[in-house]
Amino acid sequence: MTATPMAAAFRTCPTTGLKVNAQAEALIKANAVAATVALLIGGIAAVLVLLTRWQAVHLLPAEWFYRILTVHGMSMLIFFILFFEMAVLYFASAVILNSRVATPRVAWTGFGLMVLGSVLVEWMMWAGRADVLFTSYVPLRADPLYYLGVILFAVGALVVVGVFFGTLVVAKREHTYQGSVPLVTFGAAAAAIIAVGTLGHGAAIYIPTFLWSLGLMKVDPEVYRMVWWGLGHASQQINVAAMVSIWYLLGALTIGSIVLNEKVSRGAFVLYILFINMASAHHLLVDPGLSPAWKVWNTSYFMYLAVLASMVHGFTVPAGMEAGQRLRGLTKGLFGWLRKAPWSDPGFSALVFSVIIFGFVGGITGVTFGTEQINIIAHNTLRIPGHFHATVVGGTALAFMGITYYVIPLIFRKQIAFWKLAKIQPYLFAGGMFVFSVFMTFAGTFGVPRRHYDISFSQAPFAVQFNPAVELVMGIMALGGLVAAVGGGIYILITVWSVFFGRPLAAGVTGGMYGVPQGIASPPKPIPESVTEHGPTPGTLVLVFVFLAAFVAYYFVNWKLLSVVWRVG
Ligand code: HEM
Ligand SMILES: [Cu+2]
Fold first, then answer.
1. Which pLDDT score, from 0 to 100, does residue 337 have?
2. pLDDT for res 173
3. Which tens digit of pLDDT belongs to each residue from 151-206?
4. Ligand 1 centroid – CA 45 distance (Å)
5. Which segments of the chain have a pLDDT < 70?
6. Which of 254, 480, 543, 565 has its CA 20 to 30 A from that of 131?
7. pLDDT on residue 289
8. What residues contact residue 551 under an 8 Å CB cut-off, 6+ apart?
9. Cβ–Cβ under 8 Å, residues 82 and 157
10. Rounded to an integer, what distance in angstroms lies between the CA atom of residue 130 and that of residue 145?
C-alpha cells in the first residue's frame, strides 16, 4: 500500500462539506501555534508596561520599560498578527476553495524564514541590543541582527503571500470551486495585495537601515519616517482587510448572515487597495519638512476614501446579520434580531464587540486625530495608543479570537476546553479593552504623553503638573487593561489546552455537542431557495445614525479643544 502524498491528501469536513487539504491544515496549525506564542510574549510584556505606566505601581526601571515596550509592540503587532494572518490566507485560499496549496515546500520555507526572523528579533530585544521601540526611528540604532531579523521575517511573509496567489491560480485551473471566489477570499486577496506593497516599503526602509547600522550608508530621519510609515500604516490596512473578511465569515458561520450586495462589499475592499497608502501621511502631520498642502491632500481627501470603505463594511456587516436573522423569522421590533442572537457563542459575541469597538472607538478617534489641524493636540499623547488599541486589539485581535473558536473544532477537530470560560472570554477581553482604550484616550486628552516612563518627571529640571483627574483616569485605564489581560490569558489557556490536550471531536457528530460553538452544534437554518429578496434593515439604520451622531459630537469637541489651546485674536 502506498501512502497518499500529503500535498494531495484531502479530508471532507463533516460540518461545512469543504475539502480540507492536509498541507493547508498543517500550515494553518503551525502558524496558529506561532501566533499564540507571540501573543503570550506580547501579553506578558503588556502587563509589565501597563504596570509601569500606572504611576501608582511604576514597576519597571526606565531602561526595561523601553525594552519591554519594544518587545510588546513587535511581538503583538508584527509577530502575533502576521502569523495569524498567514493562517487566514491558507484558510481563505486552500480551505474555502477546496484546493491544494500551490507549493507546499515553498510555503514551509516562508514559515521557516518567519520563525527565524522573529526568534532573531526577540533575542536582540531581550538581550538589550535593540531598545529602539516598534518604529525604530533612525538615528536610534539597534544591533544589525535586529534589522536582519525583521527583513527575514518580511521575506518569509512575502513568500507566503506568493503561495496564496499561487493557490488561487491552482484552484481556478483545477476548477475546485464554481463561479467567482467567495467574499471572504476576495477580502483576503485584498489584504494580500496590500501586503505586497507594504512589504515593498518594508524592504525599501529596512535594507538601507540594516546597511546604516553596519556603518555602510546614511539614512535621513525624515526619509526614514516617510518610508517606514508606508510600511507601518499600510500594514494596518492588511489587518483591517483581514478583520473585515473575518467579520463576514463569522457572521455567516454564527447566525447565517447574508451579503446584501456583493458588488458594494467588493468595491469597498478595492477602495482599501487604492487609497490606503496616502493615509500614511497622518503619521507625519507635525513633521516640519512637509508642506501643509501635501498633508491636507493626503490625510483628508484620499484618506477619507479608505475610511469610506470601512464605513461601508461597518454598515453591510451588521445589516447582513439583521437581514439574515429577519429572513429566519426574527422580525420582532427594531432589535429583536439582535436580542435573540446566540450571545453565548464566543464567535458571535467577539464579532459584535469587534465591530463596535473598532467603529465607535477606533474609527471615530482615528479620523479625528488624522485631521491636519487637530493632530497637533493629539500627537504623541496617550490618545494615539488609545486609538490603535481600539482598532488593532479591540477590533482585529478580538476578531481573530472569535474565529479561533471555529478554527479549533473545524481545523484542529478538537472540543474547546474550558467551554464555560470560553463563553465569557470575549466579554472580559472586549470589556477590558473598551475601558482601557477609552480611558487611555481620555488621559491623552489631558496631555499625558505616550511612550513615557515617568510622567511625574521626578528628576527633571522642570516641574510638570497634570490635571489631578489624570491619576484617577489612568487608574481606571490600568484596571481595564488588567481585565483585558485576564481575558487574553484565558484565550491562550483555552487554545493551547484544546489543541494539545483537548478531546477530539467525534467525526460527523453535530447537534447538541458540548464544547463547540452554536454555529457548529446547531448551524443556522438554511434560507429556502424560494426566498430571493430580503427586507429592510431598520435596526442597523438606527445604529448607523447613533454612530454618526457620536462621530459628529467627538469631531466637534476636538475643534473646540483646539480653539482653547490656540486662541485667535
Ligand atoms: C491586554 C492587552 C493589552 C494591553 C493591556 C496593552 C497595553 C499597552 C500599553 C500600556 C502600552 C504603552 C503605551 C505607551 O506608554 O505609549 C502599549 C503599547 C502598544 N501596544 Fe499594547 N496592550 C495590549 C494588547 C496589544 C495588542 C494585542 C497589540 C497588537 C496587536 C498591541 C500593540 C501595541 C503597540 C504597537 C504599542 C506601541 C508600542 C510603541 O509605542 O512602540 N497591544 N500597549
Ligand atoms: Cu496610520
1. 96
2. 96
3. 999 999 999 999 999 999 999 999 999 999 999 999 999 999 999 999 999 999 99
4. 9
5. 1-6, 507-512, 568-569
6. 480
7. 85
8. 363, 364, 367
9. yes
10. 9
What type of residue sits at position 468? P
**What pLDDT score does 510 carry?**
52
CB contact at 8 A, 416 and 405:
yes
Task: Give the pLDDT confidence of 506-535 residue by residue, as tens digits.
Answer: 755 554 578 999 999 889 998 888 888 888
Instruction: Give the closest residue to 195 by CA, choosing from 114, 264, 276.
Output: 276
Q: What is the dihedral of CA 202, 207, 210, 216, to 10 degrees?
A: -150
CA nearest neighbour of 184 among 254, 249, 106: 249
**Total-model pTM:** 0.96
Which element (helix H / strand E) includes 11? strand 10-12
Give the residues surrounding ligand 1 with Cβ less than 6 Å away.
46, 49-50, 53, 69, 72-73, 76-77, 80-81, 133-134, 385, 389, 392-393, 397, 436, 450-451, 481, 484-485, 488
The counts of H helices and E strands in the chain are 21, 2
Q: 64 CA distance to ligand 1 centroid (A)?
A: 15
Quote the cell numbers at residue 137. Answer: 526611528
Residues 6+ apart with CB under 8 A from 292: 372
Q: Cβ(6)–Cβ(104) under 8 Å?
A: yes
- Grid cell 485560499 is found at 93
Listed residue (88, 264, 107, 110) closest to 188, CA to CA: 88
Q: What pLDDT shows up at residue 4? A: 60
Q: Percent helix, strand and coil across the chain, each rounded to 5?
A: 70, 0, 30
